[in-house]
Each structure stands twice: as structure tokens, then as C-alpha cells.
Amino acid sequence: MLKNASYIIYPLFRLAFSMAAGIFLFDRFLSDRLSWPWAFGLFGIAVVLTCVCFRSSVYRWRSLFGYLATLSFFLLGGCSVLYQQSRIDYLWPQEAEVYEGVVQTVPYLKGKTFRAEVTVTHRLEASEDTCIREKRWLPVRRKILLYWILDSAGTSLQCGDRICFHATVSRPVSDMNLTGFDYGKYLFRQGISGTALAFEGHWKRLQPAFMLTWKQRALLLRERLLEQYRNWGLEGDVLAVVSALTVGEKRELTEELKAVYSAAGTSHVLALSGLHVGMIVGILWILLAPLKRWRHGKNVASLLLVVCLWMFAFLSGLSASVVRAVTMFTLYVLASWVSEERFSGFLSVTLTAFLMLVYQPMYLFDISFQLSFVAVYSILLLYPLISSWWSPRNRIGTYVWNALSVSLAAQLGTLPLILYYFGAFPTYFLLANLVVGPLACCILCATLGAFLLGNLPVVGAGVIWLLTQTTVLLNVIMESVSSLDGSQLTAIHLSAFQALLLFLLLGAVYAYLHRRSALRLMTCLGIVNVFLVIGIWRYGRPFSDSFYLYRSEVYHRKRFEAEVLSSANGFYRLDALKVAVLKDSTWRKKQAAEKLAVDYAYICRGFRGNVEGLSRVFEIRQVVFDGSLNPSYRKSLKAECMRYQIPFAELPAEGSYRIVRKY
């Protein structure tokens, strides 16, 4: 397509990088200090100055054009992320109120509650006048994560239903000290403005009054496909893998199965990505091959292929990695219609990143977005270098070496992100990825064949049997690889700066291999030294050794690791401290001749009783209320604590209570 592609790739990459930098820096440092209208004003000024410099006949001013264009895209990224944050953020009332909304995702059971994303359309405001109590519905238009307890009638909700509920909506909170993961910020960047819990009898399903969106229709279609899988007799790990690999549904995946694929280095096969899109393109291209015989049939087949891929993207939930792959293919098809020249891979991936960030700046903070683009850039850069190390003389050797080269290039490029986010590295990923690709392709083909031939008595049963056995074989191989000695290096904890140093090291090594020089070698060694010094400092500095009360459990955190403590009767002795976790009716209406001294009474959901009853058995120094307690029940317990002059602390829904260890 482009004879001088390099003259377009570099400016586009620079502008896309500037926009990404603006998104990151504005989100990190200016989200609470600058509003998006002010940022948009600065962006407008920068654009005007850019146009003036471009039109100027004075060379000195025209030389500033590149810098001002870069600044404009930097401010564009900042404007977009601040505007997106303003559409998510909302000042929720502190008290419980009545809300109306629409269920946006398929509800699923988590523990004893159902969970789904709900777009809150209105809230009922009650304002009291001197003699008239007026009520009015106020527009909200924010998305929350709603938990609800099923009522006695067994009323169920599905995607697209309208719901009215009475609950306290609060902003997502996190506990970085315990978990090391900012869950609140993660939800916010996913567009979630708050979380709420609606108890039994505090919610009601309303009559549908809205047209379903395309995304909702796709999610309902996915549920029907999953039901068809169950009708075929798929169950357990087979159902989980087929569901994840074909439609991106990961609810059936158990923690054990995730751990197996993670240790084998093939977790990417369970998360839809460019690998799956490439397989689907190959399968559909073969099925649409007869169209190529007609005039313009190739263009028609390409158009149908693009439509099918976007349908698949909606069906899979529009994950960042799938959107990236489908967008790149769409750009490739569009380019093939206007030119016969080859479309540059660097240009397509850079343009795709730019378009995705313009559409949704929060994509930048999505782990799948980061891994997907870094993997593609790594393959484009490192695959030619690695594949040139050896030239096999037969087809089997060529396939094996090409597969190993692609896998190694992607794994090397994403290594800093994998270590930073997951703290583990699979050592046998090359071995596992040799078989995961062909077997995953067989599973996709068998699934498509089962849909096409499933109604035929013998043939359909044979295809379903083949699908089941192929999936079982994949699981067995992954389990065998993960069970090898030293299959995974764990407990690797990198800081963000160390991850950045690893990226710089990869870039320096790549530059050195392309053109060897003493300066480039010294640069590599210097980065390694800085990385090691920071690692030694992080592991050698003093650390806090603490206990945490969190989600009805007691945790012990030491340096980077946190483990849950176990107790048969709910009593924990933490050095000199005694903690009682109360989440049932064991101590209700009990008495003791001699009270048991308890430093912390952790009252959680499921507790039956009151503080007065506990004071007959325990001598309580402080009460800690878990965030899962019913608000009205918690209010009455707090009143009792104040009456008996017992200090208490309240935890938010996702918060914890820290107890510093005593020696």
C-alpha cells in the first residue's frame, strides 16, 4: 500500500505515543486538579498554534510544527481521559435510596449473591418541604456493580431487564496494603462508578421498556450457545475450556484449571485474542473460498469476513485483545481495496492503537490491551531476528521453528508485564505452545462442525465426541506440562520502575544485536546493574509484618505475600492478641461464669445476636464491623457499642482492618 511506509509509520507512532502519554500522565497526576473543559481549552490553543506554524512562511516557525503537533495529541489524550472520568464519576448519596436501572450483563452467582453490571438510569430523590413531601426521579446514567440476594419467590433477572432497588451505592474502594491490587481503580477504569448490595425484598424486577442493545443481544446469544454446549453433554473442565476458547466465557473456569494453564504458559488460549481471531479468519476464508470464483467475489468474501469477525467480537464481549485483532484485519481489508501494495504491519498496529485510544482512552489501562499490543510489536520486531538463527530444511522443522520463534518473541516482549502483574514465569512455555495452537484450532473447527452437523444422528454425535476428546487431550497435555519439576517460577515481585527497566533492557539488547558497539553493550550492562541494585534494595529494606481482618477472614501479610489463617472455632491468637471472628449464631444467648478476654471481635455477615449477648461471654476491647453487614443491623449494633462504651470500627465493602504485629 505504501512505498514510503517509514515516512508515515514514525510520525503516526510518535503521535499515538504522545496521546498515550497524555492519557497516562493526566490520569496519574491531574485527574483531581484539572477539569476536562480546561484541558479541552488548552488542546484548542495548541491546535490553533499548530495550524499557524504549518501555514507560516517563516521557516523558524514552521520548524515548531512537529513539536506543537506532538503537544496537541498529548493534550488530546489528556482531554479524552478527563472527559471519560467525568462520565464515570458520580457523587452517590451516603444513605440508602431507591434507584432504577437496566441490567447490562448476564447475572451470575458469586457466593450467596448474584452479581451483574447495572446502568443506573434514575434515582428517587425525596425532598421535604414545610408541609409537602415531594419526590422526583433524577437522571444518573452511571454504571455500577450490583449484588443482590435472591428473594423467596425465586425471581430471576437476565441481561436487558429493568430493575428497581433500594440500596446504598458507594464508590469502589481498595485495600492496597493487603492485596497489593487497587480494585477500586480497576473497576473505575472499567467504567464502574460504584458498588451496591440489594438485600432480599429490597429489589424488584420491572417490565422491560427498552430496546436491547447490540451488546446485550450478543450476550444473550452467548448464553444460548453455552446452553447448547451443555445439551451436547459437555461438562466440567471440557465445558470450561470450550466456552472460554470459542465465545470468551470464563465463568466455568475453576481456579485449579487456571493454575494449570498458567503454569504451562498457555493462559492466552483461555482468553480470546489475536490467536483465536487468526484461526477464525483461516476457517471462514476456506468456507468462503467459492465466492472467489466470481467477479469481485474476493471483495465480497472479505466484507463478509469482516462482518463475521465483528459479530464474533460482540459475542465475546468486546475484549481489548479481540477488538485489536479485528480492527487490524478490518484495516488490512480496507487497504487491500484501495491499493495492491502490501500493508505494513507496524502501520496497522499503530493505527489500531491510535483508533482504540481515541474511542476509549481507558483501554490504555487494560491488561489485555497492554499484553496484546506489546506481543504484536514484539513479534514484528523480534520474530525476524529469532527466525534467522536457523533455517530448517523440511516442512515439519520449519513449522516447529516458526512456532517456537513466534512464541519466544511474544514471551520475551511481554515478560516485563507478566512479571509485574502476575509475579510468575512459566519455564516450559515453548513446549506447551507447540501443541496448544493446533489443538485449539481443532477445537474451533469441531465446535463449528457440531453446530452445522449436530442434528445428524451419527455424524453429529461423532463430531461432538471428537470435540470432547480433543479438549480432554489439551487439558491432559497442559496438566502434564504444568506438573513437570520447575514448571513455574513464582514469587517474583517487580515494581513499575523495574518493569520499565526490563523494557529498556530488551530495547538495548535488540539495538546491540542489530549493530554491535561498545557503547550499546555498556548501556545494556548499565541497565542490568541499576535493575539489580533496585532489586537488592527492595528486598533488603525493612518490611511491616501485620495481620488484617478482611472479608470475614484473618490474613497474615509478610513482605509481598499474604496468606489466610485458619481456625476451627473462629478464635485466633495473634501473638499477644486474641481475635474472634463471629459469623454465625454460635454465641447467641450464651453465658459464661468467667468472661473470655478478646482484643478484637470481628462481626461479619451471618452473625446472629447482639453486643449485649456477646458481653455476657466476652470481655471485648474493640469491635470491628465487616462491610458485608446489613446497614440497619450494623446501625443497631453500633448503638449497642456506644451504650456499653465499646470502641468500634467500620469497614467499607472492600476494605480491611490492619493489626500491627507485636513481638
TrEMBL record:
The chain crosses the membrane at residues 6-26, 38-58, 268-288, 300-323, 343-359, 371-390, 396-422, 429-452, 458-477, 489-513, 519-539. It holds the Pfam family DUF4131. Residues 245-515 form the ComEC/Rec2-related protein domain. Its main location: membrane. Residues 34-197 form the DUF4131 domain. This is ComEC family competence protein. The keyword Acyltransferase does not apply. InterPro entries: ComEC_N, Competence_DNA_uptake, DUF4131. One of its GO terms (cellular component) is plasma membrane. It is found in: Cell membrane. It is a multi-pass membrane protein. NCBIfam families: ComEC_N-term (TIGR00360). The keyword rRNA-binding does not apply. Keywords: Cell membrane, Membrane, Transmembrane, Transmembrane helix.
